[in-house]
């Protein structure tokens, strides 16, 4: 099989915003407790945070983290999680049928984010709460001092404001499972009021309004339109959420999941621009793709879900998907899709970060390790700098049940003019054959390949686990041939590759 792509730094999509490499930490299962926070762990620092996890999060290169949910936020009282730990209430978490101990809250999370060099993106509860509580948490977090709530933060040991600039107005309010689920009109009106009030505190805040919780929702499209009709002047972003999984053994369709993500993004852009046109607005709304990943959601509903009236476990093992090579290839291709739309997707959060559908796993009092999905994220975050390029890609194709005829190879490239480096990210979706890819690099002048690393395995379902933590990793791709004006590389079946050009 063959593919050909032309890479020219003059043809750009837009700058790759560092916020594209964001993640998401929810009070869910063992993401926080026994994940990032485990005071009794041998690697715990003075604040109770696992230093082995901090090191992995830094290696992953996560730029911003959305917190504290997710479904959890729609029943959350932020004030439960601040002040002396001994006085914090234990509460029912209705979203995940768990007990929330509130040992970690806004202040601790802000401290942890400094340790991992990442930005805090905070979601307010618009499920069971509203304008006043959003204003309260904003005052607590961002005002220096001299008012009741800002002084409360100072008394709690945090004299410097957290200065959170990006805020999410609730979570997945279109979903019937969401606490406080509402119609697009109800939510749009509340989101607009909340945004206006928050802007009275600080006109520079960047606000994200909830889009659909998936492109499969019956209200998809009309939800975005109605919500933006209410909030267009008040917000900067609309959110997208998408999770993919292999269904019924159809690996071919699963490997083509980015086709669906491309269509999803383009539909939301079209809808936002429709509202822009109707309003004759000069403002453009961008996308915060603030939940995306591979997630075997049926496993949660079939195996993990807790329901008993007297059963409210604390930090249970929920959504602990173990990812294969094939999952990581799909995951890498989703990143390709996000970068391909860098002009309009200017923020994104891989969901989630530790233990819960996560690239990093931990055992209590035990090790932390990298799942297969860790590698494409870390490499892409490290290498995708500067501008995303418009690629001319031709490739052999294959047939899928879900998406019809699909390119065997998918790719995106970035170019950092200042540093004089480029990167190409590629996937081979074929299960049968390797692909020889010829990259026309004449537009870059003389280049050398400084690295080419591939994730693949003869067993597409190979995984890393507690018992075998380094079974899967990146390996150097030695097939690269550089000739004047072209770079040729062979991609093994079901693989993800990053090529660095200098
Ligand atoms: O990431 C897991 C859950 O998926 C989130 O809580 C919710 O927003 C989405 O449905």
UniProtKB/TrEMBL annotation:
Keyword Repeat: no
InterPro entries assigned: Alpha-L-AF_C (IPR010720), ASD1_cat (IPR055235), GH (IPR017853), Glyco_hydro_b (IPR013780)
GO molecular function: alpha-L-arabinofuranosidase activity
SMART domains referenced in this protein's UniProt entry, alphabetically: Alpha-L-AF_C
Residue span(s) of domain Alpha-L-arabinofuranosidase C-terminal: 290-495
Catalytic reaction(s) noted: Hydrolysis of terminal non-reducing alpha-L-arabinofuranoside residues in alpha-L-arabinosides
GO BP field: L-arabinose metabolic process; polysaccharide catabolic process
Keywords: Carbohydrate metabolism, Glycosidase, Hydrolase
EC number(s) recorded for this UniProt protein: 3.2.1.55
Primary enzyme class: hydrolase
Family of this protein: Belongs to the glycosyl hydrolase 51 family.
Subunit and interaction comment: Homohexamer; trimer of dimers.
PANTHER family reported for this sequence: ALPHA-L-ARABINOFURANOSIDASE C, ALPHA-L-ARABINOFURANOSIDASE C-RELATED
Name the UniProt record assigns to this protein: non-reducing end alpha-L-arabinofuranosidase
High-level lineage: Bacteria, Bacillati, Actinomycetota, Actinomycetes, Micrococcales
């Amino acid at each position: 099989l063959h593919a050909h792509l032309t890479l020219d730094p003059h043809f750009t999509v837009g700058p790759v915003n560092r916020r594209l490499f964001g993640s998401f930490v929810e009070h869910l299962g063992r993401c926080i407790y026994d994940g990032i926070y485990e005071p009794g762990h041998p690697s715990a620092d003075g604040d109770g945070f696992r230093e082995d996890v901090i090191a992995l999060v830094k290696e992953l290169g996560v730029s911003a983290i959305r917190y504290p949910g997710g479904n959890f936020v729609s029943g959350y009282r932020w004030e439960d999680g601040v002040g002396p730990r001994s006085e914090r209430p234990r509460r029912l978490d209705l979203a995940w049928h768990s007990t929330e101990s509130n040992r970690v809250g806004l202040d601790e999370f802000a401290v942890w984010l400094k340790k991992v060099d990442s930005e805090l993106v905070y979601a307010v509860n618009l499920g069971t709460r509203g304008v006043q509580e959003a204003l309260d948490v904003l005052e607590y977090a961002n005002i220096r001092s001299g008012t009741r709530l800002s002084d409360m933060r100072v008394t709690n040991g945090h004299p410097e404001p957290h200065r959170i600039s990006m805020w999410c107005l609730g979570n997945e309010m279109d979903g019937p499972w969401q606490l406080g689920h509402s119609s697009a009109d109800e939510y749009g009106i509340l989101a607009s009021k909340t945004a206006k009030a928050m802007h009275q505190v600080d006109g520079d805040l960047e606000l994200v309004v909830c889009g659909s919780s998936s492109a499969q929702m019956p209200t998809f499209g009309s939800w975005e339109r109605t919500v933006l009709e209410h909030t267009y002047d008040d917000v900067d972003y609309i959110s997208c959420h998408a999770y993919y999984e292999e269904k019924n053994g159809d690996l071919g369709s699963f490997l083509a999941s980015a086709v669906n993500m491309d269509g999803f993004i383009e539909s939301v852009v079209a809808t936002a621009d429709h509202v822009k046109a109707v309003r004759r607005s000069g403002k453009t709304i961008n996308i915060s793709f603030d939940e995306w990943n591979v997630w075997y959601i049926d496993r949660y509903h079939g195996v993990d879900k807790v329901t008993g009236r007297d059963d409210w476990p604390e930090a249970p093992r929920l959504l602990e998907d173990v990812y294969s090579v094939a999952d990581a290839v799909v995951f890498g291709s989703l990143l390709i899709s996000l970068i391909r739309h860098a002009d309009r997707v200017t923020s994104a959060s891989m969901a989630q970060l530790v233990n819960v559908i996560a690239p990093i796993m931990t055992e209590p009092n035990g090790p932390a390790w990298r799942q297969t999905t860790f590698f494409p994220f870390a490499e892409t975050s490290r290498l995708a700098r500067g501008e995303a390029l418009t690629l001319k890609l031709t490739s052999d194709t294959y047939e899928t049940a879900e998406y019809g005829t699909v390119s065997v190879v998918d790719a995106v490239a970035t170019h950092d003019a200042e540093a004089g480096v480029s990167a190409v990210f590629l996937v081979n979706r074929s299960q049968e054959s390797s692909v020889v890819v010829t990259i026309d690099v004449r537009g870059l002048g003389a280049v050398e390949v400084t690295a080419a690393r591939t994730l693949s395995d003869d067993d597409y379902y190979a995984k890393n686990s507690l018992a075998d933590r380094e079974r899967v990793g990146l390996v150097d791709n030695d097939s690269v041939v550089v000739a004047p004006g072209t770079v040729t590389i062979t991609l093994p079946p079901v693989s993800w590759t990053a090529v660095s050009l200098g």
